[in-house]
Each structure stands twice: as C-alpha cells, then as structure tokens.
Amino acid sequence: MTDSLAMKFLVAVALFAVVYADVKNVRQKFKGAAITAINDQITRELQASYFYQAYAQYFARSDVALPGFAKFFSEASKEERNHAEKLMEYVNKRGGDIQLKELKLQDVCNLVTKGLEDATFSFTKTKSCICNFITANNAVTSSLECDNSVRDDWFNGLMALEDTLVLERAVNDFLLKLHQAHDDDAHLSHVLEHEYLDEQVNAIKELGDKISQLKRAGKGLGEYLFDQKM
C-alpha cells in the first residue's frame, strides 16, 4: 500500500470512528436484538408493498380491467412502503443501524400460501397465484388454481382480497411478536401500539368486510359494480 493510499485509509477509519461514536451517543437502551427485529419487520413491510404493487399491475391489465382494485392495491403498496420508511426513520432516531435486505415476491407468495392452507380459514382457494400471473416463473405449477390457462375461472377480486387478509394478519402477528419480545423497551412499545397495531386491526376488519360484501356481490356484473366503489 502506498503512503497516499495508507493515509486515505486511516482518514476513512478515523471518520467512521467519529460517526460511530456519534451514533453511540444517540443510542440509549436500544438493544441489538430489537434493532435486528425491526430491520426484519422493515423487510416484511417492503415485501408487502412489493406484493400489493404486483396486484395493482395485475388488475390494471387489459384482460382484467378492474381499475378500482388497481387503485386500491396501489394505495396499499404505498402505505406499506410508508410503514417501512417510518420504521427506518425510527431506527435512525434511536441510533440504530439500517440493514436493507433482498426482496423476493415469491417469498411473500409462499407466506400467503401457507396462511391460505391454514384450516382455520374458509377461503375459496389454497394457493396465492399472483406470482404466477405477474412473473415468468410459474413456481406453483402443481396447482390448477394458479394455471394461467384457466385464469378465466379465477375470481379476481375476491381471491386477491383473501390473499391480502392473510398477509395483513401475518404482518400483524409479526408486529405482536415484536412487541411481546421487546416490551421492556417503553418507547418502542409506544410506537408499535400507537402507530402500527391499531392500524393493523382496523385494516383486518375492513378487509373482512370487503370479502363478505364481494361474496354476496358474486362474479361478473357483481364484481364489476363492486370495483366501481373500491
């Protein structure tokens, strides 16, 4: 290493040490385990945003043409991204470290499929098919539910809302576990309770209502009219 490179390296190390010291000065009783758990939740929120964006684009297709659902899922995607950004701001505010991870749509589809297979639900399908409809990788080829060739029989709006309800319940479950595991952190508990948990409960109730209404509306014209009010 030349003298010039060595000097640059030492300056970089010194700057890092100063910055890290400033971060440590901000951090107060903010445990590493909590930071890791929040980073995991940030990933889940971004994955949910990605999942809803996939649905928004699906409903915007000319062979689906349900603009109300497209708008609904586009707004849902923005909301989940906003949740992630708020958590990132929170970690920085408390002096933690943000660790962004790779996002995979298939991971969310697998999570939702696992939820759909839960015997406590009474849904119209057992697979999340959006990964097959929106990507070139048909990962769930074993199920006719997700076969593009029979997609005309797929109840678009209802099945998408069922996926959404399962995902929102899963996100809520992760938030509850985060709260329970770190309930000794008073400020984190306050943020989760006032900015996330209540909103999740409201969202789950709203989705449950929409599913019930859409079941009564039925396919075809009923779904079309329901879309107008989304």
Write the layout of secondary structure elements.
Layout: H1 3-26, H2 32-59, H3 67-93, H4 105-116, H5 130-134, H6 156-181, H7 186-217, H8 221-228
Helix pairs in contact: 2-3, 2-4, 2-6, 4-6, 6-7
Give keywords.
2 domains, mainly alpha, 0% strand, 230 residues, 70% helix, Ferritin, single chain
CATH architecture of the largest domain: Up-down Bundle
User: Which residues form runs of ≥5 with pLDDT under 50?
Assistant: 13-21
Any idea of the CATH topology of the largest domain? Ferritin
CATH superfamily of the largest domain: Ferritin, core subunit, four-helix bundle
Order of helices and strands: HHHHHHHH
Biggest sheet character:
none
> In CATH, what is the class of the largest domain?
Mainly Alpha
Helix content: over 70%
Morphology call: elongated
Query: How many β-strand runs?
Result: 0
The number of domains is 2
Class from secondary-structure proportions: mainly alpha
Oligomerization category of the chains in this entry = single chain
Distance between the termini: 63 Å
Quote the beta fraction: under 5%
Mean pLDDT: 82
Taking Cα atoms only, what radius of gyration do you get, to the nearest Å?
22 Å
Q: Number of DSSP helices?
A: 8
